[in-house]
Specification:
five-stranded antiparallel sheet, single chain, 4 domains, mainly beta, eleven-stranded antiparallel sheet, elongated
Length: about 550
Amino acid sequence: MAIQKIKRTMLDTGITDSSDANAITIDSSENVTIAGTLAVGTATFADNAKAKFGAGSDLQIYHNGSNASIISDNNNASDLLIQSNNIVLENNSGHNMIHMTSGGAVQLYHNNVSKVKTTATGAQIGLNNSTITRLQLYGATNAEHQIKFGNDGTNGEKDGAIRYFGEAHGTTANRRAMTFSTAQTERMRIDSSGNVLIGTTSTTVGGLTSAGVGFRVDAANGILQTASNSNITAIFNRTNTDGQLISFRNAGTEDGAISTLSGRIAIGSGNTGLFFDSIRQVLTPHTMTGNTYSANIDLGRDAIKFKDLYLSGTANAGNLILGSSTNAYTLARLDHENSGGKAELQLNAHGSASFSMISNFTGSTYNGVATSKFGLMTPHGHDIVFGTNNTERFRISSGKTGIAFQSDTAQANHLDDYEEGTWTPAFNMSSGSVGYDTTNSTGSYTKVGSLVCVVAAINLSSVSSPSGNLAISGLPYNAGPGEKFVSGISIALLRNLSTNFTIVRGYVSNNGNVITLHTGATGTGHAPLNANTLQANTQFYFQLSYNTDE
């Protein structure tokens, strides 16, 4: 049973209609229908109680206890229109989520910060000068992620595309690869290993496995840079006839080239080329058109020379001249024995070897030169003469020992010894001992022929009851035989003895290498210097020249 009409007398309902028409109808299902305008302060609906609008309940607003819903057009016959100059969607904290400006931008927000914004010419993702990720495309691990470019025509969206293949993509070779396409055809890809492939999907393009660290093209500066790790950096493959592989140009004009020639390589410019013959294992002169060019290309020139030449085999030359062409000594032989460490250079005079230079590093004596020595040899018993300005200065005489000067060939006048070295001077005494300042107690000598010149410094640091005749030992050579070889010392400094002496002398006896020290006059008053005069700070500096033999 329904109530058809509520009278005006029920004024507390707020209904002021005085007509006889039904104002409020309540049907048997307790649905309330209001004919006319309802003005209320607050309308409260229970969970799942819907506010319905339209003859067919086309718009419904309700809350199901968890979520709020606005449902428009259950019959899919109309749109849901929201009209305003500006439309803003916020969360319950008042933060922007969507902001739509009339005649302006539509913006999407993340955490109250604009991330996507439409502009008059398109759309902007992210913020200017921001390190925030601009655009991320996510999908299943076996998915193919795409960005497509094109028009609205048939297949227009496939005119250009960038694709990324997930790590579990059905095609193994595509996994984690990125491809770039135009006209619906792949042109370039970057595979999961970082290989950049252009015009191919194979990593073995050119017939050789390619591996590298990086590939760089600097278009602004015209630089092509490639780097690899223990592998080939670049492959240039001419697949048909011989010819240029690489042309080097300056302002468009070719300066040089690298070419293939009979399956090998040639480098050069014009008629000056070097052919690398891997079959014969030689380098030969060639023109860059592929012709041999024997005896036409020089290595260096008078004004611009190479420095050193190192060879381990045979040097073949038409002729090697030492001296003038009218008075020539021709190099007859250059022998090198690598395994034995021996080398010999011979100079010929009139067909007979007259001079040899020998180096013998290992093995036994070689042509008179001992191991680890270098020698100048004359195999026919000739002297080796050294001179300047066409004048002899000294010679090494055949059959004699030493060096002769100024054409003097007598053996007695040959300088047969020169030596420099050090010796250790020390005090000799009958008893007791002394200690030395080893830093400042030294001696050195020079021996030229039979003449020996020594210098020495003795500095004591301690004494322990020294006694007896005092002498100095340690001379590097014995004096010669006979009284004429007795030689005296020259004392530069002697101080800090316990006794002051007016005269101190020292000499080396013939056939001896000990310096005897005396004090007093040259007559009967002289006596040996006693060691008991030494003190901890005694200093004795002297020189001595003596001869060893005739």
